[in-house]
């Protein structure tokens, strides 16, 4: 279905089609290599993973920053984004987007993405309700932005892990570098109207999610 849609596209920028095709081929090649490796090493699949920490969130909510900070701790074995297409061990400590197109239907993007995210939020809530015995730790974006280290310490306390002074200092330095880079680049500005959306539509789509997790609303 993906390749059929790609073949019908008339808005791809020069070189975007070739880059997308190369991405698809690389992804398939990586999958075949992983399947071959696992077939040759069946014991690897039986190796235990003790208390994995799975980080999930909405887009633009600080997930990458949080994971990068956690990756500074040597007691963790992070699963990095690039490993998704380079999975073969031993592992040491760009997807195609709508920006490959020259003519993007922003209202359609708003309609599709908001619907997908709303459905994801509903399924996440349903999954949590089905597994009340599982451990979840909620992090609010505004809390994380206001005091990243306090958020990190609360997460470590939830996990029952020790945050060493050395790792905490490395995290603090990374936070300072991140803040400096953001100050230099300036803030991202998103406008709902550009995507044919408004606050009422967002509240309707995500009302249950907002109420369930007491999400602080941002209103201009």
What does this protein look like?
The chain has about 220 residues and is mainly alpha-helical. It is built from eight helices and no strands. The model is unreliable at about 90-95 (pLDDT under 50). Helix 4 (about 105-130) runs parallel beside helix 8. It is about 55% helix and about 0% strand. It has one domain: P-loop containing nucleotide triphosphate hydrolases (Rossmann fold, 3-Layer(aba) Sandwich). The radius of gyration is 21 Å and the shape is globular. The longest helix has 25 residues, at about 15-40.
Key attributes of the depicted protein:
single chain, 220 residues, mainly alpha, Rossmann fold, 8 helices, 0% strand, globular
Could you write a compact summary of the structure shown?
The protein has 220 residues and is mostly helical. The protein has one domain (2-213): P-loop containing nucleotide triphosphate hydrolases (Rossmann fold).
- CATH A-level architecture: 3-Layer(aba) Sandwich
Low-confidence stretches: 90-97
Helix content: 40-55%
Radius of gyration from CA coordinates? 21 Å
| Helix and strand sequence | HHHHHHHH
CATH homologous superfamily annotation: P-loop containing nucleotide triphosphate hydrolases
Number of domains: 1
Beta-sheet strand percentage?
under 5%
């Amino acid at each position: 279905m993906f390749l059929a849609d790609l073949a019908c596209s008339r808005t791809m920028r020069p070189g975007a089609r070739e880059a997308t095709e190369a991405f698809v081929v690389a992804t398939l090649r990586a999958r075949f290599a992983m399947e071959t490796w696992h077939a040759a090493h069946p014991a690897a699949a039986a190796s235990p993973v003790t208390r994995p920490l799975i980080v999930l969130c909405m887009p633009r909510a600080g997930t990458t920053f949080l994971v990068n900070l956690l990756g500074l701790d040597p007691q963790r074995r992070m699963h990095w984004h690039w490993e998704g297409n380079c999975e073969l061990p031993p592992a040491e400590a760009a997807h195609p987007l709508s920006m490959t197109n020259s003519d993007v239907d922003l209202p359609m993007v708003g309609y599709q993405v908001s619907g997908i995210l709303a459905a994801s939020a509903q399924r996440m809530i349903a999954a949590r309700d089905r597994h009340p015995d599982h451990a979840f730790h909620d992090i609010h974006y505004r809390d994380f932005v206001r005091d990243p280290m306090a958020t990190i310490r609360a997460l470590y306390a939830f996990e029952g892990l020790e945050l060493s002074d050395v790792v905490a200092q490395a995290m603090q330095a990374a936070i300072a570098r991140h803040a400096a880079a953001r100050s230099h680049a300036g803030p991202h500005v998103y406008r709902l109207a550009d995507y044919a959306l408004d606050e009422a539509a967002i509240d309707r789509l995500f009302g249950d999610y907002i109420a369930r997790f007491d999400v602080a609303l941002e209103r201009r």
